[in-house]
Structure formats: C-alpha cells, structure tokens
Amino acid sequence: MNPPNQHCTLQYNWVKETRQLLLRYLSALSPEDLIRPIPSFGNGGSLRDLLVHTANVYQHWIGHIALKTHTVYAKKEDFSNIPEIRDVYREADALIAALLDQQQLMDDNIIFSLNGGQRSTSGFRIFTHVITHEFHHKGQLLSMSRLLGHTPVDTDIIHA
Q1: Boundaries of every domain in the chain
Q2: CA-CA distance, 7 to 129, in Å (whole number)?
Q3: In 3-state terms, what secondary structure has residue 118?
Q4: Contact 22, 15 (CB under 8 A)
C-alpha cells in the first residue's frame, strides 16, 4: 500500500528540482539584474519581486488558508540575493510538507474568504494551485531574464 500523498510528494520534489535549476541560473546574474525593474514586463517589477511574490502565494494558500497558521509574508525589500530567497522557499517547502502530512486536509473542504465571499476547496486543489502558480511565474522569470540580455536555462521537469 502506498503512503498517502505519495504522488503529491513526488510531484513536489520535481517542483523543487526545477526551482533549484532556476535559482542556480538566477544566482549567476548580477545583484543589480536581480532587483532591476523591468517596465516592459507585467507590473514592472523585478526578478526578485516575482520570486518573493511566488513564495508569498505558498505562505498564503498553504500556511494561512489550509493550515490556518499565523502568516508573516515575506517583504521583497528584505531580499537582495538568491541565498536569501532560497530561505523563503525552504519555508514554503516546510508548509507543503505539513500539508501533505495531513491526509484529511488534502481531502476535506477548507473554508476561506475570497473577494468578500465564502468559498471552499480541498487541500489537494490548493496544492495544485500553488505549484501551477510557481510554474507560471517560472516561465515569466525566464522571459524577464531574457529581456535583461541573458540566455535562460532549461527548467522543465523533463529537461535535456
């Protein structure tokens, strides 16, 4: 018999693997490029801003909504390099581990407020939301780095 959430754990390990490829690539960029605003892209934020936003989504959906923990969101201004950003993702990893340890949360309806209304969803759906959100922004980060004159690396789950 397989342990509960074995496939989610495996899938999240792939997410972490591709994140490490991305962070290794971004760590080779200059600190100035990491925090340089990119006005022609999205909201004009920086690579750092988008990395912190993505980590905050884990904090919000997994920590605040699913696990009902007190959440202190990361502030982009507190991060100036990739090693510091890795720390906030370690926190996201711990939140995911806590969620996956609670099979009932993965299956049950979790009640939360959104845009002034009450909603419900499962922990599994929240898990899916946060990892697809990270992959969406990972593509944006690679495009942003290209706008800064760099050649992105392959960060696909199945990569060359």
Answers
A1: 41-160
A2: 16
A3: strand
A4: no
Contact yes or no for 148/141 (Cβ under 8 A):
no
Retrieve residue 113's tokens.
Answer: 């407020």
| Overall pTM > 0.90 | yes
Three-state SS at 109: strand
Distance between CA atoms of 102 and 141, rounded to whole angstroms?
32
Domain 41-160 is found in CATH 1.10.150.120: no
96-130 pLDDT, tens per residue? Answer: 999 999 888 888 899 999 999 999 999 999 999 99
CB 124 within 8 A of CB 33: no
The confidence band for 42, taking pLDDT boundaries of 50, 70 and 90, is confident
What is the secondary structure of 47-78 as a DSSP string? HHHHHHHHHHHHIIIIIIIIS--------GGG
Helix, strand and coil content of the chain, in percent to the nearest 5, comes to 60, 10, 30
Which of 130, 119, 122, 132 is closest to 95 using CA atoms? 130
* Structure confidence by residue, pLDDT tens digits, 9-34: 999 999 999 999 999 999 999 999 99
